[in-house]
């Protein structure tokens, strides 16, 4: 698939060390472990799909944006899996980063990937500085301490959690980044794309809650049942499996309805619908 | 002092949450703890001094650069103090971040400060996108996994360490960022400023080794004697106190000689000389 190969190439280019420079070899291994092979690469796929729907007039910019977004996601997985947080042993069907490379390198690889994300956008900015600056602002906002995934993870350390703010920051943020950065890569206004990102994020959160509750570690490639063990708020906990499945369907319909008018609107709606079917397969298969 | 108030104001602005947005309260406390009150703010002071020497035609850009650099430095202290690395109890005369706020929030605060550094530069880029992109590239390079402080810290996890590469990345990187970002803030060529940054970094590394070996925790405000305990390479270990002191003097003379020709060259040389005298006081005082 074309998007898949664009994403993998962009990530490979982003991670390639400059000539005549040496990354400490164990840190280099940890970075590779954290990024390759990937999961579904769903966030950069959404980003490129939105960019294509908006015309994708500068593919080198949208490729950089896709890579940057996925690098932030990989960084968040590396840090969220640490003993101080989820203490997860498995990720993407192999040992989590700190299990494979130790805590110091897992922390440093996460830090390095955050930095690399912004460097990757800045490199694309040599030719399109205005777009790069807006992309960096958008990615920073959805990664940081206020409305970003850092805020999302930090809500878990608070004595009282606002469930909506928590999910919006923890899972929604990078999906909003995906749709908005897709638009920004083409010079389009990002505001009309916020709803689509937010709704896709909500759908993935509910789907993830269902997966965590219904599937085994073997099937998900990561440690299962963590939500219940960690007393983490979840849609399954509050609505039950049937309620959460219905809720998921409603969110996905809303997501498709929210797609802003753009040259590739119909094709994008098809893509979201295809993903929606894939997501809905999870509870159906698990319930038999 | 004018530079000091410029730096504190720029940091306060960078950390101020946007209106109508909520940072998780404990994460907000951790960010404040990590940044205020500061240490000597030496890196942003050097950055602004170089910017002034080059004309400082866009103070809002150099202020943002100074804040961004200090935020990266504060992030690195938060993460380096973690149990997985130095396991330090003290920092800047108070409990280290994870001692005060726990490991999860110390990790997240470090991550958030890295993100905030790049957001701060991008915000300055609304008016000067070309300069912002170059500043982000320069800061990313000196922070990341190849020639940056992440590489520097990661060398400590390698079975064999190249002492020069280690110090250059671990301490030198952010001093090179300081001089080069000072130049870039004014639109000047950063290349001629690399040597000054590198040499100031070397001087601080040697001065830090001397402080660690000679002064008590009370005097330094952080846990002393860690180099020896952690078997970390140090100038004092390899040259002795007298040799390291002589070496420090040579480096500082070289730094002053390396200052590129620029409008404020003489004043900058005076400033470096004043700092050099302050640095040289440490071994003198400690030896009685």
CATH-wise, what's the superfamily of chain A?
Answer: Farnesyl Diphosphate Synthase
Q: What is the structural class of chain A?
A: mainly alpha
- Any low-confidence stretches of chain A, pLDDT <50, length ≥5? none
Radius of gyration of chain A: 18 Å
GO biological process, one term (chains A, B): carotenoid biosynthetic process
Function (chains A, B): Catalyzes the condensation of farnesyl diphosphate (FPP) and isopentenyl diphosphate (IPP) to yield geranylgeranyl diphosphate (GGPP) needed for biosynthesis of carotenoids and diterpenes.
GO molecular function, one term (chains A, B): metal ion binding
Family (chains A, B): Belongs to the FPP/GGPP synthase family.
Q: How is this structure best described in words?
A:
The structure is a homodimer of 288-residue chains. The first copy, chain A, has 288 residues and is an all-alpha fold. Chain A has one domain (2-286): Farnesyl Diphosphate Synthase (Orthogonal Bundle), CATH 1.10.600. Helices cover 72% and strands 1% of the residues of chain A. Chain A has 14 helices and 2 strands. A two-stranded antiparallel ribbon of chain A has the order 1-2. The longest helix of chain A has 24 residues, at 235-258. The relative contact order of chain A is 0.11. The interface between A and B is large, with 59 and 59 residues.
Give the topology:
2 copies of one chain form a homodimer.
Chain A: H1 2-15, H2 25-35, H3 42-53, H4 59-80, E1 90-91, E2 94-95, H5 97-101, H6 103-124, H7 129-143, H8 149-155, H9 163-185, H10 194-214, H11 217-220, H12 226-229, H13 235-258, H14 265-286
Helix pairs in contact in A: 1-4, 2-6, 3-4, 3-9, 4-6, 4-7, 4-9, 6-7, 7-9, 8-9, 9-10, 10-13, 10-14, 13-14
């Amino acid at each position: 698939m074309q998007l898949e190969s664009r994403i993998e190439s962009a990530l490979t280019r982003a991670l390639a060390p400059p000539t005549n420079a040496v990354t400490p070899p164990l840190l280099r291994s940890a970075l590779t472990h954290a990024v390759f092979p990937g999961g579904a690469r769903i966030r950069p796929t959404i980003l490129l799909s939105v960019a294509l729907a908006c015309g994708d007039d500068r593919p080198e910019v949208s490729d950089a944006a896709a890579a940057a977004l996925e690098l932030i996601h990989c960084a968040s997985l590396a840090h969220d899996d640490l003993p101080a947080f989820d203490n997860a042993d498995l990720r993407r069907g192999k040992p989590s980063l700190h299990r494979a490379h130790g805590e110091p390198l897992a922390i440093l690889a996460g830090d390095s990937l955050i930095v690399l994300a912004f460097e990757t956008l800045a490199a694309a900015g040599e030719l399109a500085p205005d777009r790069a600056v807006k992309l960096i602002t958008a990615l920073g906002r959805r990664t940081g301490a206020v409305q970003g995934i850092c805020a999302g993870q930090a809500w878990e350390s608070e004595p009282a959690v606002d469930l909506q703010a928590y999910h919006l920051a923890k899972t929604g943020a990078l999906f909003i980044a995906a749709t908005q950065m897709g638009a920004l890569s083409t010079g389009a206004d990002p505001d009309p794309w916020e709803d689509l990102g937010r709704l896709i994020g909500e759908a993935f959160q509910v789907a993830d809650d269902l997966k965590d509750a219904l599937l085994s570690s073997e099937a998900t490639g990561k440690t299962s049942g963590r939500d219940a063990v960690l007393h983490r708020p979840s849609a399954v906990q509050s609505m039950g499996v049937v309620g959460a499945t219905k809720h998921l369907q409603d969110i996905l319909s809303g997501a498709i309805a929210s797609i802003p008018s753009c040259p590739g609107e119909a094709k994008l709606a098809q893509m979201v619908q295809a993903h929606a079917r894939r997501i809905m397969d999870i509870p159906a298969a698990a319930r038999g």
